[in-house]
Structure formats: structure tokens, C-alpha cells
Amino acid sequence: MSQMDNRQDATRETEEQFRILVQGVTDYAIFMLSPAGVVTSWNVGAERIKGYRQSEIVGEHFSRFYTDEDKAAGAPALILATAAREGRAEREGWRVRKDGSRFWAHVVVDAIRDEAGALVGFAKVTRDITERKEAAAALEKANAALFQAQKMEAIGRLTGGVAHDFNNLLAVISNGLEVLAIQSRTAIDKKMIEGMRRAIDRGASLTQQLLSFARQQPLQAQVYELNALIREFAPMLSRAGNRSTHVELALQPGEAFALVDAARFEAALLNLVVNAVDAMPTGGVVTIATETVQSDLHMAPALPVGRYVRISVSDTGSGMSSEVLAQAFEPFFTTKQPGKGTGLGLSQVYGFITQSGGDVHLSSQPGKGTKVDLYLPLAQPAAAVSVPLVARHETVLLVDDEPDVLGVASELLMSIGYEVVPASSASEAAEILKERRDIGVVFTDITMAHGISGLELARLIRSQYPAIRVVLTSGYSAAPLRDEKSGLGDLIFVQKPYRLADLAKALRA
């Protein structure tokens, strides 16, 4: 056998080995195209990924793998032209299998030229990366949800801190006014004081709205059957509409119990209905629906595993853009005209629902309406718990680290007949308790900058001075008292800024 024959045999053996190798690859579609884009070879991987047998596809144009929109845009011809010009073209996009289903493909096309440099065809390698794309999309969605949660948490902390400090300022003014009211003599004095009281009330209302968003608003939560609660409140919700807008109920059969503050829940529903009515200036329907759902990995929002009551408020109004949706829950953000809204409506709903252990999901499209889904953990019916009354004492140990609050509150307590022993910290109060035996009530702020907190002082009193009553106050919420680990759930709490009547009622309860 000649040397030429040996080289030909070696070439044929190499080509056969290469063919076997290509045919054995199942994870990649590897095939050849003519210069015009006609399929000339086909491996097992191509059959597995695209669904065509070799006999069905050889001789057909490769454009049949493209979507109709890509074919209309000239994508098949463009990728071949790019590969012919540059030697190689790489793309990602949707491709179509024989059965019509789509998959996300990573495609590489290499130009094949002979020794003279003439184009003889193309080598095309396609990989199905649908799972990778879906995983990347899921990760992006999770990252976006994490960013949104972190942003809302940061805004909530800032908002809660500002509201708390503002509450302290209002408390100083409010308590001072109460003392002045006792000493006022003329009608003009009383009229001015009453006007100042109304201003304080408006300021206090604003701080409560901000604390609601920050999830620092005291909740009077009990287990309610939500369908019954919504039906009872339906007449009020209907009055939020007008002649061209009406409210419809689509409540699931049976009962759905959840632990909520009924008044706050009704306020949240009313807020959402008012928003829906405002979004339908030419009329439409607001639908309130309930459904019991099981949380899962694909649910939006992502919730801990468990059963939830979903309360949906949907409208047929103008809808929102994606940019507006991204900011909808932020305090003071509003698309309404000046004077038509404060931008605190959805913020309060968000704060209330998340503080109640649930979450809120907002979906909307411009021109197609908006849907707000409230998720609350499903609860079992429970009996109400009553708080026993305790006796009144005359000497109050007043604890607050704000000198202005401490001074004015002392005047206020003394004006209604109490003897006041002031302390500027919980640690100082603990020392006073060691020395005096006439303290009947400790009235203390919960949050103090230095030393032990009001909660720690309350625990100390509970263990060492069980006969002394404790009344707690804060510009934040009573949430720490509801913590099962605190053991202080039966203490009386007064929200700042408090009025004389609130204070007297708490101390004499």
C-alpha cells in the first residue's frame, strides 16, 4: 500500500472517529449548514434538543428553529451573514422545537472555508440553557425582593425614629397645655388653648400614620372571622363610592379567622377602596374578595410556609406604571394632585399588614386596573382575655430620659393630685425603689438612651416589688409587651403624646 493510501486511510479513520464523537454528544445540538442555511448533518443531541429526526430535517432550512417574530426580523439571515463576515457569531434567544414548544438557546455559528478561502458552509452548536435562564431570573427576582425589603426596612426605621422624636416634642407641648388649661382664667385663653390642642391632635395623627408604616403602632389584635368583619363594614365601604362606582363582595364560603386589630383592618380596607374609587373617575367596580391559600415557593410575595387568608381589593381603573408600583408603599409618595392625598394611605396598609404578620402584594397595569392582595396568617378561633383591675396609689415614680418631658409630665401629674418622684433613667429609678417604700406606681418610658430600658425596669419591679404597679409609655408601639418572651403582656401602656384624661385613666385603672 502506498504512502498516499495510508494517509487517506488515516484521514478516513479520523473523520469516522470525529463523526462518532459528534454523534455521541447528547447535551449539544451539533450540525452543519450549507452556505444558504440548509441543514446537511444532524447529531443525536440535535434530535434530543430540537425534536427532529435526521431524516426529517436534513435538506430543510435552519430558520424553522426560529420564532415567528425573529424570522420576521431577519434574525436567521443576520446570524449567517455575521458568521461569514467575522468567522463566528454567538447569540442567545428563544428557539422552537418540533412540537412548537420554546426553549432558551445559546447558539454558536462558525464559518467553514476550504483551503482557497471559499465559504463551504457553517458549523452550528446549540445548547438548551432554559434552566439556567430560569434560575438567573429567579435569582434576580429574589434579589429585587430583598432590595425592596431592605429599602422599606430602612425607610421604616428612619420614619419611626422621626415620629418617635416628634411624639416627644408633642408630649411636652400637650402636657404643658394641660397645665395651662387648669390655670387659664379668660375665654380667650381657653379658645387659644383649644386651638393648640387641635393642632397637637393633627400632629399626633400624622405621627400615628408614620408609625403605622414603620410597624411601630400599637395594635389591639384579636381573632376575627374576616368574612363577617367585611360584611359588617360593607355599608361604609359602599358609601366610599359614587353613582358611577360600586363595591362588590366576592367572599369565599365558610369562615376565615385571622388575628387582627379590627379598627385598623377596617381602616385599611377603606383606604384601599377610596384609592380604587379615585382611580376610576369615569366609574367602575371595586371588588373585595377573600380566599384561603397555602404559601409556596412561587407565591408573590414570598411568605413563610403556612396557610393565609388573602383579602384582595381590585378595581377596573387607570392602573399604575412599573415605576409607580416600585414606590407605591413609600410614605408621602402620591400621584394625586396637591391637596388630594398625603401619600400615607398605602404606607399605613403596608405597615399594618406586615406588623400583623402578613404581607402585601400590589399588581397593576396602566389602563387595566389595580389589585392589592393582603395576606394574613390563618388563625383558630380564640376566647378574649380580660385584664384584671388593680388598685390606685398616690405616689408616682416618673421615669423619662428627656428632661423636658420629665419636667412637664411631673407638673401634669401633680396638677391632678399625685406626688411625683422624678428619675432621669431606669437605673436611677431602680436605686430610688431601694430607698423608698411609698412608691405605688411607676410610670416609665420604654426606650431610653442610656442604662437599662423601661422593659428591664418593669421586669425588675415584677420580680422584686410585685405590689407596685407599672405603666409604660412610648412614642413607639407596645409591640415588645406582646412578645411572648417578655412576660409583661398584662401591663398598661399609654401611647405618646398622651392627654390628661388618658394619663389619669391609666394611673387609676
Output the CATH topology of the largest domain: Heat Shock Protein 90
Number of domains: 4
Q: Tell me the total number of β-strands.
A: 16
Name the poorly predicted regions. Answer: 6-11, 337-344, 383-393
TL;DR?
InterPro entries: CheY-like_superfamily, HATPase_C_sf, HATPase_dom, His_kinase_dom, HisK_dim/P_dom, HisK_dim/P_sf, PAC, PAS. Helix content is 44%, strand content 22%.
What labels describe this entry?
Beta-Lactamase; five-stranded parallel sheet; alpha/beta; His_kinase_dom; 22% strand; 509 residues; PAS; 16 strands; Heat Shock Protein 90; elongated; five-stranded mixed sheet; ATP-binding; 16 helices
Description:
This protein is α/β, with parallel strands linked by helices. The chain contains 16 helices and 16 strands. The strands form four sheets. Strands 6-8-9-11-10 form a five-stranded mixed beta sheet. Strands 13-12-14-15-16 form a five-stranded parallel beta sheet, with helices on both faces. Strand 3 (102-113) and strand 4 form a beta hairpin. It is elongated. The chain starts with a helix and ends with a helix.
Ordered list of secondary-structure elements with their pairings:
Elements: H1 3-24, E1 29-33, H2 44-50, H3 54-57, H4 68-72, H5 75-86, E2 88-96, E3 102-113, E4 119-128, H6 130-183, H7 187-213, E5 222-225, H8 226-239, E6 245-250, E7 257-260, H9 262-278, E8 284-294, E9 307-314, H10 322-327, H11 345-355, E10 359-365, E11 369-377, E12 395-399, H12 403-415, E13 419-423, H13 426-435, E14 441-445, H14 454-464, E15 469-474, H15 479-482, E16 492-495, H16 500-507
Parallel strand pairs: 6-8, 12-13, 12-14, 14-15, 15-16
Antiparallel strand pairs: 1-4, 2-3, 3-4, 5-7, 8-9, 9-11, 10-11
Helix pairs in contact: 6-7, 6-12, 7-11, 8-9, 9-11, 13-14
